[in-house]
UniProtKB/TrEMBL annotation:
It is an enzyme of class 3 (hydrolase). GO terms for molecular function: cysteine-type deubiquitinase activity. GO terms for biological process: protein deubiquitination; proteolysis; regulation of protein stability. It catalyses: Thiol-dependent hydrolysis of ester, thioester, amide, peptide and isopeptide bonds formed by the C-terminal Gly of ubiquitin (a 76-residue protein attached to proteins as an intracellular targeting signal). This is ubiquitinyl hydrolase 1. InterPro entries: Papain-like_cys_pep_sf, Peptidase_C19, Peptidase_C19_UCH, USP, USP7_ICP0-binding_dom, USP_C, USP_CS.
Length: 785
């Protein structure tokens, strides 16, 4: 494993399975703590809800993992290792039905000779040409139970040897052309244990990882008292051939670890010895504001070097701080004491203020009249404020950084207008208007500054930004698109685009298209862009659904179009899920326009014919003000009735039980629990009949329940005959159905004024489930990477 090469792309993406295995094995061997498997499952691309929380089969994972590793080994020095370790060969012959026992094929089970002799008694089996160095034996713990009509787990005791000799009895398992010089004596190396049932349970493993007799148990479950009895059984055995053990179970030392993995481990171990320092200065602000960024000051990712050539006596460094409104501003200069501290001590101070693991500093340099640095003031008082200034040109629609000033908080903007004009290159008497840039996310905020108020009264402090422009005339307010600072910054804020990945709701794991959208686009705008990409003429046939960031899947309900129209939902609002922002939206193409569809209600109704034990699903779409009677009238046109005057009932099933019977006058959008039983008369009972099967102490309902009218004095035998006739069950099959004996049925089912729901008494029919089994999650194809 350690001989498989890793690249920088593997380290960066985290998607390499062999790298994840290298890391896990390294930590298991050289670490002192337990090792998690999160990074390994991430390399499987199992970070989605579907794969992370569903039961999977360990044998299937073992097979798929070996196939994936075999692919990753191609073109490397370890190519072919999988085949060398696990691959053997065998030859089929007609002798016995399984690998160790012999079964005679006779009577109806005779072997058919393709020649002229027809059916003949025969024996079939398998002989092995060679065995692999590592033998993986999968014990057949599951079998089909014809009584329950389902797969069941076999919990019988099975003893397996510590040593397995496959050469015994003169090599009876070997084919005549097998190499008899190879000694096929195997020693037990690992046991995979399963506890639980067929479709649910827990795995653990016992492994002897070295040549010693010491075994290790790998288990991520803690013992808890109580609950049902758990049956733990050996599920898979791993044997290694004695003659190959020294090579297979070789001791791994540091020199066997891949250089890239060792380098990565060293970096992680020594990370605390280093600190990344990023220093921004005036030149960075001049280069970036108005070009790369408009809000705040600087993109710290683009700050590469701080070799400035400025003598120490002219330097002053400021710490940055992340404010409550999510802006990032210079907060205060380093104190004299802090300037003598180590970089690590400064980083700890910086983390408290900026909540960033790196050490971020702002480099302040004062420039004198002759454009040479001058020493900054020896000490900054509490009354001193560092302000930054941006200039806006309404005609050019541009904003850029022009400089900074230190002022007294008791001073007024009116007193520094000449200095501001000087920074902008204006005449000293130019009239200007001042604004404070307060924040930009999630909502933009910019406020006018009153020149005659003190900086303290205007709540201005260190790191605040003042945007200014020439005083606009009344004519220019209509001449320019964005005549003042707030309108321009709002425009820029909304212009910032987000890249949204659109996925079809039917294929929710695959990106179909990626669109660059403005933050102010409405639902209609977004659906129009998607429709244009898909080649649809009517964008109202596009329905959008938000992404659930927690479950990594579509939300269960689509965006409600009527609410969108009333509130003019913006595209970015649809990307927010519980304060977490996503870049995924799901779309579906509708048959009818969305405004029309949302005035309708779509119901999926299963129709069960009175004489057929099969339910057919129908999708019916009606106006929301329709009643249950309307629904049943539409359904009558879609199904085959036993007779023209047959009446239909609308039932709600829950866990294969009848939960509700809906009255005909109930609106389909406001269905409540109904009253029932009044129309039957005093001599009749309306009972529920369910299908069930026992699994140990459990009672599992299945199939489609139904309702049955019984009359006073009717016996169980009479009811059973009616049920058999209704379900059209043959006599031979119905004889296997189990019902408790009772003379008079109506005594068991009291007549009630109100419908009693799924928790009331019901008649149960115990028999095997012959309906098609649903696909369990574990039966889905397992994929890695």
């Amino acid at each position: 494993m350690y001989h498989m090469p890793t690249t920088e792309n593997d380290l960066a993406s985290g998607g390499s399975i062999h790298l994840a295995l290298q890391t896990m094995f390294y930590k298991l061997q050289f670490g002192k703590n337990s090792v998690g498997t999160t990074e390994l499952t991430k390399s499987f691309r199992w970070n989605t809800h579907e794969y992370s929380f569903m039961q999977r089969d360990a044998q299937e994972l073992n097979r798929v993992l070996c196939e994936k590793l075999e692919d990753e080994m191609k073109g490397t020095v370890v190519e072919g290792t999988t085949q060398q370790l696990f691959e053997g060969h065998y030859r089929n012959y007609i002798e016995c039905i399984n690998y160790v026992e012999v079964e005679r094929l006779e009577g109806d089970n005779k072997y058919h000779d393709d020649q002229q002799h027809g059916l003949q008694d025969a024996m079939k089996g398998v002989l092995f040409i060679d065995f692999p160095p590592v033998l993986q034996l999968q014990l057949n713990r599951y079998e089909y139970d014809f009584t329950r009509d389902t797969m069941v787990k076999i919990n019988d005791r099975y003893e397996f040897p510590l040593q397995l000799d496959l050469d015994r009895e003169d090599g009876k398992y070997l084919s005549p052309d097998a190499d008899r010089s190879v000694r096929n004596l195997y020693t037990l190396h690992g046991v995979l244990v399963h506890s639980g049932r067929v479709h649910a349970g827990h795995y653990c493993a016992f492994i002897r990882s070295t040549l010693s007799e010491q075994w290790f148990k790998f288990d991520d479950e803690r013992e808890q008292y109580g609950g049902e009895t758990k049956y733990s059984n050996a599920y898979m055995l791993v044997y290694t051939r004695e003659s190959d053990r020294d090579e297979i179970i070789a001791n791994v030392d540091e020199k066997d670890i891949e250089e890239a993995e060792e380098h990565k481990k060293k970096e992680e171990a020594e990370a605390h010895l280093y600190t990344v320092i990023k220093v921004a200065q005036n030149e960075d602000l001049l280069k970036q504001i108005g070009r790369d960024i408009y809000f705040d000051f600087v993109d710290r990712k683009k700050v590469r070097s701080f070799l400035f050539g400025v003598p120490v006596k002219f330097q002053r460094f400021w710490l940055w701080a992340k404010r409550l409104n999510h802006t990032y501003r210079p907060n205060r200069p380093l104190t004299l004491q802090e300037e003598t501290q180590s970089v690590e001590q400064l980083r700890k101070v910086s983390i408290k203020a900026s909540r960033n693991t790196e050490l971020d500093l702002f480099f302040e340099v004062e420039i004198g009249p002759e454009l040479h640095p001058i020493p900054p003031p020896c000490y900054k008082t509490k009354e001193d404020i560092l302000l930054f200034f941006k200039l806006y040109d309404a005609e050019k629609e541009e904003i850029w950084y022009v400089g900074k000033l230190i002022v007294k908080d008791s001073g007024k903007p009116l007193e520094i207008l000449k200095k501001i004009n000087e920074m902008a290159g204006f005449s000293p008497d130019e009239e200007i208007k001042l604004y404070e840039e307060i924040k930009f996310e999630p909502a933009f905020m910019c406020m006018h500054i009153e020149k005659k108020l003190t900086f303290l009264a205007s709540e201005l402090g260190d790191g605040d930004i003042i945007c200014f422009q020439k005083l606009a005339s009344a004519d220019s307010m209509t001449l320019y698109r964005y005549p003042d600072v707030p309108s321009f910054l709002k425009y820029v804020h909304n212009l910032q685009a987000v890249h949204v990945h659109f996925r079809s709701l039917e294929k929710s794991m695959e990106d179909d298209l990626c669109l660059k959208l403005s933050k102010v686009l409405t639902y209609d705008d977004v659906s129009e862009r998607v429709a244009r990409y898909l080649g649809l003429d009517d964008p109202t046939k596009i329905r959008l659904t938000c992404h659930d960031c927690s479950l990594q899947q579509p939300k269960p309900q689509a965006i409600i179009f009527l609410i969108v129209q009333q509130n003019r939902l913006k595209s970015t609002q649809a990307l927010i899920h519980y304060n977490r922002t996503s870049d995924i939206l799901y779309y579906e193409v509708l048959v009818i326009p969305l405004p029309e569809l949302q005035n309708l209600k779509t119901l999926k109704v299963g129709f069960c014919h009175s004489t057929k034990n099969k339910t057919v699903l129908h999708s019916i779409r009606l106006p929301k003000q329709s009643i249950v009677g309307d629904l049943l009238n539409v359904l009558k046109t879609k199904v085959e009735l036993s007779h023209p005057d047959a009446e239909l009932r609308l039932l709600n099933f829950f866990c294969h039980k009848i939960d509700r019977i809906f009255p005909l006058n109930e609106k389909i959008m406001h269905i409540k629990y109904p009253r029932g039983g009044e129309e039957l008369g005093p001599r009749y009972r309306l009972i529920h009949v369910y299908h069930f099967i026992k699994d140990g102490y459990r009672v599992n309902n299945f199939g489609e329940p139904f309702i049955l009218v019984i009359h006073e004095g009717e016996t169980l035998d009479a009811v059973k005959l009616r049920i058999q006739k209704k379900l059209q069950v043959p006599d031979e099959e119905f004889a296997k159905w189990i019902t408790e004996d009772s003379d008079i049925m109506s005594r068991c089912f009291e007549k009630r004024d109100h419908y009693f729901g799924a928790r009331g008494k019901y008649l149960g029919l115990e028999h095997s489930n012959s309906s098609p089994k649903r696909a369990f999650a574990a039966s889905k194809t397992l994929e890695l990477g």
